[in-house]
Amino acid sequence: xxxxxxxxxxxxxxxxxxxxxxxxxxxxxxxxxxxxxxxxxxxxxxxxxxxxxxxxxxxxxxxxxxxxxxxxxxxxxxxxxxxxxxxxxxxxxxxxxxxxxxxxxxxxxxxxxxxxxxxxxxxxxxxxxxxxxxxxxxxxxxxxxxxxxxxxxxxxxxxxxxxxxxxxxxxxxxxxxxxxxxxxxxxxxxxxxxxxxxxxxxxxxxxxxxxxxxxxxxxxxxxxxxxxxxxxxxxxxxxxxxxxxxxxxxxxxxxxxxxxxxxxxxxxxxx
Length: 271
Prior knowledge:
Layout: E1 3-10, H1 16-21, E2 25-28, E3 39-40, H2 51-54, H3 57-66, E4 75-81, E5 84-86, H4 99-102, E6 116-119, E7 121-123, H5 129-135, H6 137-142, H7 154-162, H8 166-171, H9 179-188, E8 191-193, E9 198-200, H10 203-224, H11 231-234, H12 236-252, E10 255-258, E11 260-262, H13 265-269
Parallel strand pairs: 1-2, 1-4, 2-3, 6-10
Antiparallel strand pairs: 4-9, 5-11, 6-9, 7-8
């Protein structure tokens, strides 16, 4: 059975010991100076200066360009964040919640026949209305009836929060192998794998994913640039990647869905 190498992506230097206690690899993102013991995205070939726009994908780029080839072929490679974790399904998330016991630390036997693990799907109909009114005002003004729309698609959600027509323009820049399939995916799917996280059995699969993703996002930079002032557009490249991730892995690999849960490591530090 393969081992798991899980990278935990963080923005706060004081979480080092907490991440290590999980047997995860601590990754520091952004402009903050991280102490010894952290992997960071600002060495070697990197796009760390674009972290405000790419979010955690600046580390994915760093891993692709600098470190992926050094990882053993007998390890699963995965990612979580300091507020999102893979769940140990043998532990119930109830009133007796124990964080350490609830986090996945070992590769379950039931993964053996799969290539990729993605978070359980969430329905787009589960929109938070306070967020709609805060960030989706322009979309509601264009189409007030959208608030009553059922079976909302990925494209509907993206247009609502991240700019009407942005996703269409981005899809037009995709390679021919993915353009039509991804367009059909966002226009038909009413849910997608949550968490912006994955665990993969093969680094060669990850290489292929990264090559397709970052080639596309680089083209998108030429259209959207970095003068992005509205909420939905500041991290536009991270949001595009978030929608592309479940599409690409479900199309190209054998996927198993797995529960994730939300818990802030900073809260654990306060205890």
